[in-house]
User: Which sequence fits this backbone?
């Protein structure tokens, strides 16, 4: 550790003192040991203890998850944690550096979230983004003040310290994206200004090539060279080795699954979607016939979904599948239910009941495998920082009953969707399966607004089939994140031939996205929309009006319920 770094650590110790049950000397010793490790996970056969991790401390930003995705794209593992998380909960992740996210608060607000003391005491590199930068200034002796004008949107960053490692291979002037109402009016002692914009005199600052703050958001696409800055931080400053690859993830996951399951048996719920298919294939790779897959036809599936899924698993993947037709049971359970949260929870509970019954037929079954992903966890648990409100409950996260007898096996719980697709390809799954568009766990129940009946489901299935058929014919399927139909609970007057009709209005939803955390409505060609509308009205009885949903996420969600 350099003399400058020792001085910084002494200063932070004096300012914050020891926190929690771990002494500061222990922090520094463990951090130094972590930084000194040269063996990569590849060289040592991949173990959780040696996996290098960038810790992202979430202070409530809407783009915190996007920071995580950008770091993962650089082949570096990262995890989002709350600012309340204690050191003991993360030290085994082998942290290599910290990123402090943006957030909606002002640092001088009462009870404003602030990074824990160990961020500075550890001696590890720190990058504060927007509110994260202001937190650094506030905690280390600088001054943050309200701006006369909020700066939101495009700005031009001008570097004043081109030798900074953070801005290696970054142009002297480069476009960035701002979103802040406060500004730093005085930097902490010994910090240097690294860049400015027209409205922000201190747009970037740094101390000893170890602690950095940037007022703009490098994670968004509007910051043209943001990814290069993040790359500089994780490789040149945090000295990561880039061991986060799907090959390493598979090796590590197989080892963990074998250890966790032992001689036990696993039941996996498959739906035909990419998540359940990939997780089942991964588990089968680890434990073979200790895995039994169960396909539950809940009556809420798309047209021909059951037949296609059984064929893929049995004939192409060689995985044994038990087929259960529980459609009447599910429809009976949600009869008369119109509230979307109730639908989700009832469906989740019913799934578990069916699995428990099937497990008894199979004998002793210890684990239930699920294709839970990181966005599912984030949306269902408010946010890792508990700052934002719950958006909706995912049936495989927040909708599980407390009395559930299974232990959960969720090897993809910290993966984003694009990573799951890479994993599927690495496991050798067919392209059609890997690139199948996401389908919600509650199925068509949350695309059938209002009460769910067999008649309404049949109308929706046939309309959805037309939408998907035309999207594929137009060769747009891979470009879309999701494309589907929503049967509304609204009826309208129409004319067909010489007759008056009073039938359902159907909504078409098509969005583009990379991770489902944010999404934009797809600008489908007018001719394609016209063709879809014409086919549905002519081929599907019960619909006489088609509307196209042009809402992005946020403010809407991808699904209607």
Assistant:
């Amino acid at each position: 550790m350099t003399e400058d770094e020792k001085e910084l650590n002494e200063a932070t110790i004096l300012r914050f003192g020891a926190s929690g049950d771990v002494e500061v000397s222990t922090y520094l010793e463990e951090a130094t040991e972590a930084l000194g490790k040269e063996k990569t996970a590849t060289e040592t056969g991949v173990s959780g203890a040696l996996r290098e991790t960038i810790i992202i401390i979430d202070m409530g930003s809407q783009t915190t998850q996007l920071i995580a995705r950008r770091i993962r794209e650089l082949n570096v593992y990262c995890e989002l944690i709350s600012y309340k998380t204690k050191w003991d909960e993360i030290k085994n992740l082998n942290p290599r550096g910290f990123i402090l996210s943006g957030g909606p608060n002002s640092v001088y607000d009462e009870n404003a979230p602030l990074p824990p003391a160990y961020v500075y005491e550890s001696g590890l590199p720190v990058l504060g983004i927007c509110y994260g930068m202001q937190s650094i200034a506030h905690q280390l002796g600088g001054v943050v003040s309200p701006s006369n004008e909020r700066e939101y949107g495009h700005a031009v960053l001008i570097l004043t310290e081109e030798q900074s490692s953070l801005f290696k291979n970054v142009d002297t002037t480069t476009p960035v994206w701002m979103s802040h109402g406060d500004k730093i009016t005085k930097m902490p002692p010994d910090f240097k200004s690294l860049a400015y914009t027209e409205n922000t005199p201190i747009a970037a600052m740094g101390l000893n090539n170890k602690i950095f703050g940037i007022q703009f958001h490098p994670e968004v696409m509007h910051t043209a060279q943001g990814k290069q800055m993040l790359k500089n931080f994780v490789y040149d400053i945090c000295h990561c080795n880039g061991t986060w690859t799907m090959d390493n993830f598979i090796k590590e996951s197989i080892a963990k699954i074998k250890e966790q399951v032992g001689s036990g048996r696993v039941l996996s719920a498959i739906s035909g979607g990419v998540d359940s298919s990939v997780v089942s294939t991964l588990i089968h790779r680890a434990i073979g016939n200790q895995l039994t897959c169960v396909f539950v036809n809940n009556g809420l599936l798309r047209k021909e979904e059951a037949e296609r899924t059984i064929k893929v698993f049995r004939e192409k993947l060689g995985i044994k599948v038990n087929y259960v037709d529980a459609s009447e049971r599910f429809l009976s359970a949600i009869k008369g239910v119109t509230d979307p949260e109730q639908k989700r929870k009832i469906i989740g509970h019913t799934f578990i009941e069916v699995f428990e019954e099937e497990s008894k037929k199979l004998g002793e079954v210890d684990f239930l495998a699920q294709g839970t992903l990181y966005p599912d966890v984030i949306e269902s648990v408010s946010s890792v920082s508990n700052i934002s409100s719950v958006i909706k409950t995912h049936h495989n996260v927040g909708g599980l009953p407390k009395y559930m007898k299974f232990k959960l096996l969720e090897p993809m719980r910290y993966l984003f969707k694009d990573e799951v697709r890479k994993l599927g390809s690495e496991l050798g799954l067919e392209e059609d399966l890997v690139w199948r568009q996401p389908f919600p766990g509650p199925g068509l129940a949350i695309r059938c607004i209002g009460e769910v009946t067999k008649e309404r489901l049949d109308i929706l299935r046939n309309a959805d089939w037309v939408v998907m058929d035309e999207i594929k014919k137009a060769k747009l399927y891979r470009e879309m994140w999701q494309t589907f139909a929503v049967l509304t609970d609204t009826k309208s007057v129409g004319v067909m031939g010489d007759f008056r009709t009073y039938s359902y209005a159907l909504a078409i939803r098509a969005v583009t996205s990379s991770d489902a955390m944010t999404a934009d409505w797809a600008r489908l060609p007018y001719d394609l929309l016209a063709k879809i509308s014409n086919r549905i009205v002519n081929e599907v009885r019960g619909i006489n009006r088609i509307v196209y949903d042009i809402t992005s996420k946020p403010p809407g969600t991808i699904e209607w319920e």
